[in-house]
Design brief:
heterotetramer; B: mainly alpha; 3 helical TM bundles of succinate and fumarate reductases; 4 helices; about 80% helix; C: about 140 residues; mainly alpha; two-stranded antiparallel sheet; binds flavin-adenine dinucleotide; binds iron/sulfur cluster; binds FE3-S4 cluster; binds FE2/S2 (inorganic) cluster
Amino acid sequence: MNGATATLNITRYLPGQDQIPRSQSYSVPYQRDWVILDALNYIKDHIDGTLSYRWSCRMGVCGSCGMMVNGVPKLTCAVFLRDFYPQEIRIEPLVNFPIIRDLVIDMSDFLDKLKSVKPWIIRKTEKQISEGEYLQTPEELSAYQQFTQCINCMLCYAACPVYGMEPEFLGPAAIALGYRYNQDSRDQGKESRQAVLGSHEGIWQCTFVGECTEVCPKEVDPAAAIQRSKVEITKDWFKSVLLPWGQR
Amino acid sequence: MAGKNSSEPFWWGLFSAGGVVAAFLVPIHIILTGFALPLGWISDTGMLYRVWWVKIYLFVLITLPLYHWAHRFYFALNDMGLKVIRKPLAVVCYGGAVAGTVATLWVLISV
Amino acid sequence: MISPRPDKSMLYYPKMPATWWLRKRSYFLFMLRELSSVFIAIFLVVLLVQIYQLSEGPKSYTAFAQRLGSPGWIIFHAIALLFAIYHSITWFFSTAVVLPLRLGKREIPRNLVAALNIGAWIVVSLVILYLFLSLKG
Amino acid sequence: MDTYDIIIVGGGGAGLRAAIAAAESSPKLSIALVSKVYPMRSHTVSAEGGTAAVLRDNDSFDTHAKDTIFGADFLADQDAVEMFINEAPGELIQLEHWGCPWSRDPDGRMSVRAFGGMSVNRTAFAADKTGFHMLHALFQTSLKYESVNRYDECFVTTLLVNDGRVQGITIINIYNGQVEVITGKAVILCTGGGGRVFPFTTNAAIKTGDGMALAYRAGVALKDMEFVQYHPTGLPGTGILITEASRGEGGWLTNKDGYRYLQDYGLGPPTDEPVHRKMELGPRDILSRCHMQELEKGRTFEGPYGHYVHLDLRHLGENKINEKIPFVRELARKYIGIDPVYEPIPVRPVVHYMMGGISTDATTKTTLAGLYAAGETACVSINGANRLGSNSLTECLVFGARAGRSAAEYASAQSSPSSKPLEALARDEQQRLDQQFLRKEGGKERIATIRQEMHKTMEEGVGIYRNEEAMQKTCNTLSQLRERFKDISFDDRSSIFNTEVIAALELDFMLDVAGAIAHSAANRKESRGSHTRTDFPKRDDENFLKHSLAHRTVDGPRIEYSPVTITRWQPEERKY
Ligand SMILES: Cc1cc2nc3c(=O)[nH]c(=O)nc-3n(C[C@H](O)[C@H](O)[C@H](O)COP(=O)(O)OP(=O)(O)OC[C@H]3O[C@@H](n4cnc5c(N)ncnc54)[C@H](O)[C@@H]3O)c2cc1C
Ligand code: SF4
Ligand code: F3S
Ligand code: FES
């Protein structure tokens, strides 16, 4: 260890005690290969046990550790101190969410939204297990595969100003998930998802800011999922109005 | 299907069509009417505007991007926090585009 | 019942200021993109007024066209043109996102799709220019 | 006090599968799904390589069973293994029907790949994020069932046992620090493994062996706890796993001379194309030991985080790496700045999986009436002394489903527990938690210090190579730590999202689990599977072809033994 230290300015908020969030500064030993989360764990273990935040896998796949790092939503287990050092680093809870405490946000709203898009395979006729799998070619898989990569980390919600302004907005990850099932060759439930996806609070509130895709750590591209849903639903709409006799 | 009950796909469809028209056609027309003509790079285009199929083209050129404007402007104002007056805004924006369509139709028929 | 959710009254609700779009470059560029539609719309209304002059007779049409040569209008058209080009370019990149082209399992790179669109845009613009020069009514 | 028919603790692969099975087997039953993290954060999310089942005509139940039992060094119960293998294909297809995005062959069938210790390609996968995709498919599917009521971010502190059967749990609601009671006629523990008792592990922070400790404290034995699997290929420093699939797809292990050293340990000959059960596709316990012997011979690299060897994927080419193991590339690039397309990845053995766990029978029942366990926290046992890679995700499905059904059947036949005695038990628990955790004042031991010392002694005493003296020392150190733990201090005395209290509760559980591991290990005077003793280097079927059972007593663990079920495969020497 070379004695160098990195400074982190961390948002603290304890309900009942703090009226509004405040910032607290901590110094940790600077290690080149530490991620931000390592620094937080160091603080928790050795400096201040009251600091609260979520984490688990420390390998960028469980989606727990999203925070604002210098104003940008990031997985703190996937950005390094060295990316900022020797600048001070500002750590805040993800924006656009209510704060429970310190860096912990309330995401129960998202869980309701997740459920509302019916993220499960809907079939008109079920195949028996004994008859084996539904066949799906690699091409059919690739039609939706990208949209299965979402780890529910909420970075896209923190990046989306529309969600910030309108908390009812279904939001990027939930829509991308609905789209993922719609594109799955095994699924036949598109129509029953459109009520939610195709509502004002669904795809139509999105103004294609595109920041959701920019910040997504898993290259899900929710912005594309939303715009493509708009195209599909619009096509269906015009078909059903202009060709009411035609099949949809 | 909720999409069917709401009019949003309709407006969005017009918005998109308008976006395409604006992207492909508007810049060259700005060059033509905003610079080339007043600065005398090209001679008068007035007679061209009376050709029937050019009129159809002009109708598309002018009206669709108005819907594009209506949609974007309405949502941009919402994003800027004016959602409290969402209803009147919608009337002004989309209503404006419809009024523009009627006006365009009238002008093109009358010239 | 145990409520396995945080008690709403204990939460801190941050507020997003209406000026959020001034805070980040990408948000600001987004707002510019949206506002490009305003300039495009104004231009088209002006164009419509100009066409309307035709019904008042060739004189008033020419007079109107000449008025557009004033510095004020030239500046307006210059700004409108910049916005319009900004709209075109952002639109073509968006199109590449919204309407992906696939070749088997692979998506054709979006920048390529956007470049193709931009190429088409230039061709279309040249064709219109040619028509205006050659047809003249 | 909330009342349910079935309580499931844990929202990982096993817990979610159990919840769906219980909901499907009897829609009338009310089900509580309690988890200390949101279900999609569970550790199953990290599993990479794949999940095994007999899916192809060139495979058979018997070969899968034989591979598993052989891999287990004959310590698996063969009746349970057969049951497991018979039900495995159906479970994977069920998950396919639920939307899991399995990787596919050109004809549309689920693809299968090679895995260590397996004699045929039988590991189904979803690129190299198999656990992630399985977990999300299960979680999203579980949302369909209205009878499943979730308690997210609620930490279970104890099982409520009355009248000789389990009748509920107490939880700390992490949001507000309240201690609450949930009653149930049956409880299923699906709390995952406990790799975090070691310092250097592939396991996520939440893998602290809670369920094992809960059952252990309720009087249920922990079975075969001495068997801790080291995975041969973790990243030095972080312990992040580089999946075995990278070797299944053809990766090579080389020492500092660039030599494929496994050929020196009876795993050869080296071939360009991977050969089942040979070289890099040998079982994990053996590969990890080979690494240690290379270290001994001075043929490993030395880096800031100790010794390592190379996992070389370069010859696979960029396309194959992107197609089959993209996450390996992502992890290597991000965490050590190495692109495996152009450079070999430094790797070393790292604690990965616990073969042992809560002792259950093949129906997932424990010895405590009403208590069931499944997933990594349970020991059925099918993994014996060494689990084969890709059997454990399948285990979560097969035994998760079995647990859900068994508990549903049991709960349907039970009357509701009476609340009076449970209230009394809950009051005791509240008092214990207040005194030791929630309202504890003073104390001078930092939680992190005790945790670090536990890590150190576990690595020293019960690492890859073990001996009597070191293990005794570890047992003693652990009981000292248990004493010192009473004197822990807290910085955080608030009740809202107090993660320090949770960390203390987890450490409390881990000390129990660590004790069970160390004592079981010290008592097994032979080498078998992952348990390798320098003082007893041979397998001793005469004395130790049996399961160890650790019971909790006031003077520390008491180790007993029970027979292994042998049906069609007689023990033989384990040679690859
Ligand atoms: C990096 C890695 C890669 C792996 N790859 C593979 C692979 O390719 N193939 C394979 O077959 N296996 C693999 N494994 C093993 C496999 O992933 C695990 O054994 C399996 O996922 C365990 O699942 P589970 O459901 O038992 O537990 P987990 O997924 O760990 O879930 C435990 C659950 O219990 C809850 N819980 C725990 N304690 C409490 C408490 N006190 N109160 C409330 N809730 C609690 C947690 O919140 C969580 O929801 C891998 C393991 C690791 C570490
Ligand atoms: S879409 Fe991307 S950013 Fe949004 S939750 Fe999913 S993984 Fe995170
Ligand atoms: S940032 Fe928001 S506005 Fe749409 S494109 Fe993404 S959801
Ligand atoms: S800790 Fe899991 S994503 Fe960061």
